[in-house]
Amino acid sequence: MNKELEHKFIVEFEQNQNIIHKVCRIYTSNQDAHNDLFQEIAIQLWKAYPKFRGESKLSTWMYRIGLNTAITLYRKSKRSIVTQDFDTVLYKIESTSYDDTEEEQLKLMYKAIHQLSDIDKALIFLYLEEINYREIAETMGISEVNARVRMNRIKTRLKTILNP
Amino acid sequence: MMDELEFLKKDWKKQEADFPKLSYNEIYKLIHKKSSSIVKWIFIICIAEFLFWGLITICIPESTFAIYEKFNLKTFLFVTQILHYVVVFVFIYLFYKNYKTISVVDNTGLLMKKILKTRKTVNYYVYYNIVLYILLSVILNAVMFSHTDILIENLMPENSNLDTEKFLAINIVVQIILLAVMCGLIWLYYRIIYGILLKKLKRNYKELESLEV
C-alpha cells in the first residue's frame, strides 16, 4: 500500500480519534470491548481510505464508517465479556464538577443509553454530536421525518427513565 | 432545572479529554491488524461452500457411474453435469458482483441490504444443489427401479438369502433415509452458522425497516 497515503491517513486519524472513541463509548460497556471495536473501526477506515475523495467532511465519513462497523460489521469477540462497569473505571465523572444528584443522573442516563437498540444508539450518538437531521437521515438510510419521530421517542424514553 | 439532555450533551463534550490518545506508532500497528468483520466471515464461508459443493461432485469415484451405464443414463448425466457447471459459474459471478458492491461508506440501511443480498446468492446456490441432488436421486431411481431385472443382476450380492422384493424395498428405504439425513444436516448447518453470524444484522435491519413503515 502507498506509504504516503498511509502516513496521511495515520496523521488524520490521530487528530480525529476521539470520534471513534465516542462511537465505542456508546456501543460497548467495558474496556476490552471498547478496544476491540476501536480496532475494527480503525481497520475499516483504513480499508476505505483510498476511496475517500473528500466530497464529504472527514468527520462525516468517519461517523458513517464508525457506526456501520458498530451496527453491522462488528461481531463481539469472546474477550468482551463484561468484567467491569465501564462508567466507574475509565470515564469517572469528577465529583468536583457536578453535585451528587447530577452525577447520579448522568450515570443513569448513560446506563439508559446502553440499554437502547443498536439503531437507537446511532441516533442518540449523532444527536449528541449535534449532527442535523438531514445528515442523520442520510447516514442511517431513513427519511428525515422518521429520523425526527424516532429521536423524539428516544428522548422521551430517556427522560422517563430519569423522572419516573 | 436544566434540560437533562442538554446536560448530557455538555458532559458528552467534556469526556473527550478523558479518552486515551493513541500515538502514531500505535495507530500504525492497529490498522495492520486483521479485520474480523462479518463481511469477511461471510466471504470466507461462502467460498468454502462453493468449494465444498464443487468438490463433492468431483470426488465421487468414477466407479459409481459404472452402474448408470447399464441403464443408458451416461449421456443424461454428462449433459446434466455440463449444465451444472454453467449454473455454478453464474452463481459465482453473481456472488462476486454482489460482494464487490458492499461498501462500508454506504448508509447503514443500504449496507445491510447489500450484505444480505450477497448472502442470499449463496443461499440460492445451496438450495439449487439440494434440489438438484433430490431431483437426480428421484430420476435415477425411477429409471433403475423400472428395470428391476438389471438392478438385481448388478447390485444384489450373489449367494444372498434375501428375496428380490425385500432387496428392492431395503434399497428404497436406505436411499430415503440417506436423503433425509443429508437434508437435515444441511439445515442444521445453516441454522447454526448463519444463525450466529447474521442474527444481529437481521435484527438491526428489521428495526431500521420498521422505522420506514
Would you give an account of this structure?
The complex is a heterodimer of chains A (164) and B (213). Chain A is mostly helical and 164 residues long. Chain A has two domains: 1-80, RNA polymerase sigma factor, region 2, helix turn helix motif (Rna Polymerase Sigma Factor, Chain: A, Orthogonal Bundle); 96-164, Winged helix-like DNA-binding domain superfamily/Winged helix DNA-binding domain (Arc Repressor Mutant, subunit A). Chain A is 71% helix and 0% strand. The longest helix of chain A is centred in the N-terminal third of the chain and has 25 residues, at 3-27. Residues 79-96 of chain A have low confidence and may be disordered. Chain B has one domain (36-211). Chain B is elongated and about 90 Å long. The model of chain B has no long low-confidence stretch (mean pLDDT 86). At the A-B interface, helix 1, helix 2, helix 3, helix 5 and helix 6 of A face helix 1, helix 2, helix 3, helix 6 and helix 8 of B.
Q: Total number of β-strand segments of chain B?
A: 0
Number of domains of chain A: 2
* Shape, principal axes of CA atoms of chain B: elongated
Report the sheet with the most strands of chain A, covering strand number, pairing sense and barrel closure: none
CATH architecture name of the largest domain in chain A: Orthogonal Bundle
Instruction: Please tell me how large the radius of gyration of chain B is.
Output: 27 Å
Mean pLDDT of chain A: 85
Q: How many extended strands of chain A?
A: 0
What is the global morphology of chain A?
A: globular
What is the first-to-last residue Cα distance of chain B? 37 Å
Helix tally of chain B? 8
Estimate the mean pLDDT confidence of chain B: 86
Q: Terminal Cα separation of chain A, in Å?
A: 55 Å
Helices and strands of chain B, in N-to-C order? HHHHHHHH
Q: Please identify the structural class of chain A as seen in this structure.
A: mainly alpha
**Fourth-tier CATH superfamily name of the largest domain in chain A:** RNA polymerase sigma factor, region 2, helix turn helix motif
The oligomeric state is heterodimer
Q: What is the class of the largest domain in chain A in the CATH system?
A: Mainly Alpha
